[in-house]
Amino acid sequence: MSLDDDSLEYHREEPPGKIEIRTTKSTTTQRDLSLAYSPGVAAPCREIADHEDDAYQYTAKGNLVGVVSNGSAVLGLGDIGAQASKPVMEGKGVLFKRFADIDVFDIELDHDNVDAFVESVAAMEPTFGGVNIEDIAAPACFTIEERLRERMDVPVFHDDQHGTAIISGAALLNAVDIADKDMEELSVTFSGAGAAAIATARFFVSLGVPKENITMVDIDGILTTERAESGDLDPYSREFARDVPPGDVADAIVDADVFVGLSVGGIVDAEMVRSMAADPIIFAMANPDPEIDYETAKNARDDTVIMATGRSDYPNQVNNVLGFPFIFRGALDVRASEINEEMKVAAAEAIADLARTDVPDAVRKAYGDQPLQFGPEYIIPKPLDPRVLFEVAPAVARAAVESGAARTDLDLETYVEDLEARLGKSREMMRTVFNKAKTDPKRLALAEGTNEKIIRAAAQLEDRDLARPVLIGDAEEIRATVADLNLEFDPEIVDPSTGDYEEYAEALYERRRRKGVTRTEARERIRDSDYFASVMVDQGDADAMLTGLTNHYPSALRPPLQVVGTAPDTDYAAGVYMLTFKNRVVFLADATVNQDPDEDVLAEITRHTADLARRFNVEPRAALLSYSDFGSVDNEGTRKPRRAAQRLRADPDVDFPVDGEMQADTAVVEELLEDNYEFAELDEPANVLVLPNLEAGNVCYKLLQRLGGAEAIGPMLVGMDRPVHVLQRDDEVSDIVNLAAVATVDAQGE
Q: Is 3.40.50.720 the CATH classification of the domain at 161-423?
């Protein structure tokens, strides 16, 4: 099937289109319905009638954007009319929701008349917290936006203008830095004089480019003062007319530092690129075919050509989705009256700054494991980078407050946490751990210190003040990798192969001499980074340890178990996953260590897992799971969790509710507990789930993660004498950082 065929099938599959409306409150009972509609709905109506701003408190207005178009200038399709533009506007709604959790009503207006369009949109102001106008032909789009901004008291944003301007502006900030050019001395040539080109030129001026250094070319040639005086230019393009001789793109591009293409494909050739100034910057953004293709531009010269396009199959895609969801998010959250120039500049600077940071593994994987690293081939972040929300929205919100556009207070210090909660419960939970870790960062031994992921994680841990990482491994190899990654990171390194660590060897010998290890073998083993890190923690030279990224879990666990061992009065360690759902968190054990635990082990695992839940500020309610409910099946398998639960309830030191054995749905569905087992110790669904064996634990967490939509953090090793955590072999840098923060918090409790 062709792309067109695939797209048609995608859109017509039931239900047709791409969006739907879902309720956000319970509607399961008669009382729910009486609150949602008549008669209960009268109460918020009266409040809003008395105080209009209460609409933000009692309705969805504060998180609702209208995406409005007449379909007169749809990208790549032209004037297709209002009805045909609806799939595009629905798509815009998808992007708002996917990237910034903003709800959208798409509005297609069959208006060619500017006055009628403006009146229709302005009349909808009570509905929306903001308006995104889209795909409207120039010059009408300028007039419409100007008039709506004057009329409406909510943000109005024409993304075709300002989105392109902001993203290309972010790219320009970084490109100028890489090319070692001066913004105030740039010579910039624009191909195209439509809405996007004029808005981008204006924005470049806001970033510091002198207006007199901008040359703009439309289909009839260079915008000159002669053309302006003859009435050949509309009022908006006239703004960039220059007192220069007439000419075409080839004339205008000579000696230019920057070329910005917002016109049509194929109008620039290699010779024209060679006529530009040294180390030229080329943004060829016509879609789907750029003004000059990537390879031709890069190969036209021997110096550095920094190239950006509007396409996803080349580096440096200028994609508006990097901007509008996050700009609106910040504007909505401070109830801004407008999106002003200060907010747009703040967005561009935040996007530019993000490109200079280490790229998450998930983003690299989404783009085919491309080597994404700040430089000529990576001057703007990728649209799928989730960090854009946490950088751009706060920057926009802060600029709104500082410029006077905000109408409500916002705690900018905790705002990022609120944004993280929108993207998933796991981020909210980890923020609790991160905040605790930062209060007293601990010394963390990273056994696999030569691994690139470990090095990148260590750099983040130090930069975010979550831990004091110590990389264990070949010092020369580690420093070379740091240089290759272009990290601003001077790590602490301990190299077991070069130093004199006789004391460590002796400590290992003392630990293992009655387990068949000779002094000579201890000296050999201490050169192994896992044993070295384990002894380092055991001797108090490090507070915690991470390993396991390059070894199978049992192999990685063996050295710390042999050296660090389990805690006093503890015989068994266990592996726990924290699984987060939209509105629920559960801790699941044991998923990695104990194959067939007896009742003693199950009781011990339950205590350790409850302690772990409290480190995440979750008050534990424990259920020991089986395929039996409270004796409905009686055999040795069901007796083990039953007896473990009885033992825990009889222990005066156990200060959390615990019960079992019970089936999984009984443990997590409140109605089942209340209706069928009112005698149960749990008065709310369990959040600590202890599985009867390793097989069940492993199967359970993987099914919940893959099919149930759970996000998994872990495995977190509990029961050790000192904080030790074993990574999974496919863990990403973010997973390493998460477990490192958990290890730091563990060590704080030592």
A: yes
